[in-house]
Design goal:
10 strands; flat; Serine Threonine Protein Phosphatase 5, Tetratricopeptide repeat; alpha/beta; Multidrug-efflux Transporter Regulator, Chain: A, Domain 2; four-stranded parallel β-sheet
């Protein structure tokens, strides 16, 4: 769409004679597109807030604090000018788009990611993401047959959890920090968005509206170098504790220990689909394919709509050269969640093994539409190019 036409679609007065300051990288458009849009509406892009009419647009991926715990200089300046009574506004990217009548641009902000895709983005096991959900640290934007989908906000929160975990913070300490923050600031829906790891202090702190560092409880902090010891970790007693321990073992490659921890979780909680699923994954990685198949079967028997369990069951059947059973499992997963990319890829590979290249091509193409940026997308494109060359020859 030409810029003149696009300008006619937006609010004609919002940006006229205004300076627009961007904080972070916009999810909905490039910096160049934003500059063209602002100028077409009679405004201009500025590098920092000033005393003239200014709109500060905070991008969806913009962190309020940097890794040293310092707030954005642009936001600090904007708050100072607001306190002085200057005509300065701070708006989120989504609010900015809606004000301009560009709600359709929000699609860039609200792409959904499955648990598997989020795990690949963060380089963490899917089961750790599930544990974070179980204990309430993150929540899915939507859930379809136990298949969770996350939007940009949850991706940011999960990235924060990864950083906190890598710093050595226990799951319980992170949860307690969140609880303290909610008691102090109950109006904030996503506490993790306010958290930053202050590395030289080795702790989680937040920044008050006045720019002062504080504990999640609201206690002000003046000595960042003060030593702080972690409380001793109790022995696991609950299902969540055993799950956390099992995931730690998994990440460290201690699969036998992870298997024992999952079995203890089962003894504490009784048979549950998620526990059977997790145990099956560990057994699979240990090479116990038949025992893994039994646990995946148990998971889908208890929950016939457990999409990921159907997908992984197909993987086991494929490894055991039970290709028709694998095809049936993958097709069940796709019936339950047509936009889940993994079973499309796996089903295409299985169809290729049985010689049905037409069906394989169909699911390869579907996979590319759903997840075009995954590590497997380039491989699929190469497969399709090779197939095209073979047909031409």
């Amino acid at each position: 769409m030409p810029e003149a036409d696009r300008a006619q679609d937006v609010n004609p007065t919002l940006l006229r004679d205004a300076s627009v300051v961007l904080v972070g990288r916009l999810a909905s458009m490039t910096h160049e597109e934003a500059e063209e849009l602002v100028e077409a509406c009679g405004g201009r892009i500025a590098s920092k807030p000033s005393r003239v009419r200014t709109i500060v647009v905070v991008a969806e991926d913009a962190a309020a604090l940097d890794r040293a715990g310092h707030p954005s200089a642009k936001l600090l300046r904007a708050r100072e000018l607001i306190r002085e009574g200057r005509p300065v506004r701070i708006v989120a990217e989504k609010e900015f788009l809606r004000s301009l009548g560009l709600e359709d641009r929000e699609g860039g902000v609200h792409r959904y990611y499955t648990t598997a895709q989020l795990g690949r983005i963060l380089d963490v096991p899917r089961d750790r993401i599930r544990l974070w959900m179980r204990v309430g640290l993150i929540r899915a934007a939507k859930v379809v047959h136990r298949l969770c989908y996350f939007d940009f906000h949850q991706v940011r929160d999960a990235k924060t959890l990864v950083e906190l975990s890598k710093s050595g913070m226990s799951l319980e300490r992170i949860r307690e920090s969140v609880r303290e923050f909610k008691r102090w600031r109950p109006e904030i829906d996503r506490p993790l968005a306010s958290f930053e790891l202050v590395e030289r202090a080795g702790r989680v702190l937040v920044r008050t509206d006045e720019g002062i560092l504080a504990e999640p409880s609201g206690q002000l902090v003046f000595d960042l170098d003060a030593e702080r010891e972690d409380p001793p970790q109790p022995e696991p007693t609950s299902i969540d504790d055993w799950l956390d321990l099992a995931l730690h073992h998994e990440q460290a490659g201690r699969l036998e220990d992870a298997e024992r921890a999952y079995r203890r979780a089962l003894s504490v909680a009784g048979p549950q689909p998620v526990l059977c699923f997790n145990l099956a994954n560990v057994l699979y990685n240990l090479g116990s394919k038949e025992r893994a198949a039994e646990r995946f079967h148990q998971a889908v028997e208890m929950d016939p709509e457990y999409v990921e369990a159907w997908n992984n069951l197909g993987n086991v059947h494929g490894d055991l050269e039970e290709l028709q059973e694998a095809i049936a499992a993958y097709r069940r997963a796709i019936d339950l969640a047509p936009d889940y990319p993994d079973p499309h890829y796996n089903l295409a590979e299985t169809y290729r093994l049985v010689g049905d290249l037409g069906a394989a091509r169909e699911h390869w193409l579907t996979y590319l539409k759903i997840d075009p940026e995954s590590p497997w997308a380039d491989r699929i494109r190469e497969e399709l190019r090779d197939e095209l060359r073979d047909d031409t020859d």
